[in-house]
Amino acid sequence: MKASPETLLRSDVAVVGAGAAGLFAALVAADLGAEVVLVTRSPLAQTASFWAQGGIAAALAEGDSPALHAQDTLAAGRGAARESAVRVLCEESPARVHELEQLGVSFDADRHGNLALGLEGGHSARRIVHAGGAATGRRITRELSARAAVHERIQVLEPAAAVALWTHDGRCTGLLARRRDGFELPVLARATVLATGGMAALWERTTNPPGAVGAGLGLAEAAGARLADLEFMQFHPTALRTGGARDGFLITEAIRGEGATLLDASGERFVDELAPRDHVALAIEAELARSGERAVSLDLREIDMTRFPNIAAALAEMGLDPARDLVPVAPAAHYTMGGVATDLDGRSTLPGLLAVGESACSGLHGANRLASNSLAECFVWGRRAAVAASAEPAPPPVPGPAPAPGPPSLPPESTRAALWRRAGLQRDASGLRDLLDDPFPLARLIAAACLAREESRGAHQRTDHPDSDPALDEMHTLVGGGSDPCWERWQ
Ligand SMILES: Cc1cc2nc3c(=O)[nH]c(=O)nc-3n(C[C@H](O)[C@H](O)[C@H](O)COP(=O)(O)OP(=O)(O)OC[C@H]3O[C@@H](n4cnc5c(N)ncnc54)[C@H](O)[C@@H]3O)c2cc1C
C-alpha cells in the first residue's frame, strides 16, 4: 500500500538501524536539536550489538595512551588501516565511554570503584570496559533504546525496513520505509544515516544474527554510493558446530585465554590457541581439510564455567556438559571490515548519505579488526556522523520522483553456500570468477573486490597469491556505485 502525501514524514536526520551505532547517532543528533526518525526492522535481540560479549576498547588505564592503542590497531590492520581513522578512534573512545556512563550505562568496576579494564588479544594494555561481565552489548542497547523510545525529538518506526533511498539532484534526500503490513512511508531528511550492521550472515556459517546481510550496503550502492574493502571479512575460529538453533554461537577467545585447548580428531593439540584470530581459524580450516571432519574439539573440561555463564547456558541447550564433553567448533564469518566508504565523519560518496558502525568502512580496521574496537567505533562515529548530519542542507520541499525499488533484501540460500565455498577463509581467482554470476548483487561486488586484491593480507587469503604485496599497503578497494573497481590510498 502506498502512502498519501500527507503521510510523508519530514525530519532533519533519518537513521536506519537501532543497534549501538544507530541508537547512539539518533540520541546525539536529537540532543543537538535535530528532529530524528529512527527506522528499524528488527527487535533489539536481532542486532549484533545485543550479542556483543566482549566490550569497548578505550585507553583509560594509567600507563596506557591513545598512541599505544593506535599502535595495536595499526598492527592488527596489517598495513591496510587508515592512520587518520585509527587516531580518531583511539583519541575519542575514552570520552565516549564516559558519555555512555552519563547516559546511564553502568560499566563493571573494580573494588575501588574504578572502571575494571580487561585485557584482550592484540591489545598491549588493559583497556576493555565491560558491562554485566559478558553482557556489554545487551546492557548498552537496552539503556540507549529506552532513552530513544522516550526522547521528544525521536520518532521510532518499528518494525519497518528501509527499502530504498530517495535521491534528488545527486544527493540523498531520505528513504522509503516499508512497515510489516506493506504500508510504504517516504521519510524526507537533510541527512540519512545508515547504521544497518554488517554482512557476515551472507556466509553460510556465521556468528551473526540472520538479519546481518548487508542491507545498508545494498541500498547505498543502488543509490550510487561506493563500497570499500569488501574482501576483508573476519572469520572467528571457534563458533559452535552443532547444527540447530545454536549453530554458529560464538565461543569467546577469552576462554582459550583461561586455558581451553583445541584438539584434532585424535585428541592432540594442533595450534597455539593464543595465536591471532586469523591464524587459529586457518589452522582449524587446514585440520578439517586434512581429517575430513566437520569440527575440531574445544576442550573446556578444566575451565571454571561460572565465569562464562552465557556459554554454559548455550552448551546446556545443546545437551553439552563442558565438564565432560568436548565441544565441536569450526570457523564462521564474524565481522565485516568493509562497508559503505566513508570519510572521518561518516559521510559516504553520495552527498546527504552517511554510514556508521559495521555498515561503514572508514578504513579504520584495515585487513583485520582488533577485538573490541568495533563497539568503540559505533560510538565514536555515531557522534561524529550525528554532528555532520545535523549540518547538512535542508531537503527539497517535495521528495521528487519515487526511488527505483531497492535491491533484494535477502540472499537465496545458494548465495550463502557459494560465498562460503568461493569467498571463505581461502579464495582463488577461479572460484571468485564463478561468484561474479551470483544472483545476489552484493555477492558479485564482494567477488569483484576479492578478485581485485591479488595478494594475501589479514582476513583476505588468496591461495593463488599467498604473499602480501607492499605496493598495496594503505590501499583500499572501491566497488559499486556504477563505476568499475578502483584503488584509493587512504592515510
Ligand atoms: C556474537 C558477537 C559478539 C561480538 N562481540 C563484540 C565485542 O565484544 N566487542 C566489540 O567491539 N564488538 C563485538 N562484536 C561486533 C559488534 O557487536 C558489532 O560490530 C556492532 O555491534 C555493530 O553495531 P551496529 O549498530 O553497526 O549494527 P547492529 O547492531 O547489527 O544493528 C543493525 C541494525 O540495523 C537494522 N537494519 C538492518 N537493515 C535494515 C533496514 N533495511 N531497514 C531498517 N533497519 C535495518 C537491524 O534491524 C538492526 O537494528 C560482536 C559481534 C557478534 C556477532
> Can you tell me the CATH topology of the largest domain?
FAD/NAD(P)-binding domain
What is the terminal separation in angstroms? 47 Å
CATH class of the largest domain: Alpha Beta
Beta-strand proportion: 15-25%
What is the share of helical residues? 25-40%
Q: What form results from the Cα inertia axes?
A: globular
Widest sheet: strand ordering? 7-3-2-11-18
CATH architecture type of the largest domain: 3-Layer(bba) Sandwich
Unique bound compounds: flavin-adenine dinucleotide
Name the poorly predicted regions.
none
Enumerate how many helices there are, as a single number. 13
Q: Main β-sheet, in a few words? A: 5 strands, parallel
Overall number of strands: 21
Round the Cα radius of gyration to an integer and report it. Answer: 22 Å
Corresponding CATH superfamily of the largest domain: FAD/NAD(P)-binding domain
**Structural class based on helices, strands and sheet pairing:** alpha/beta
Total number of distinct structural domains: 3
The residue-averaged pLDDT reads 94
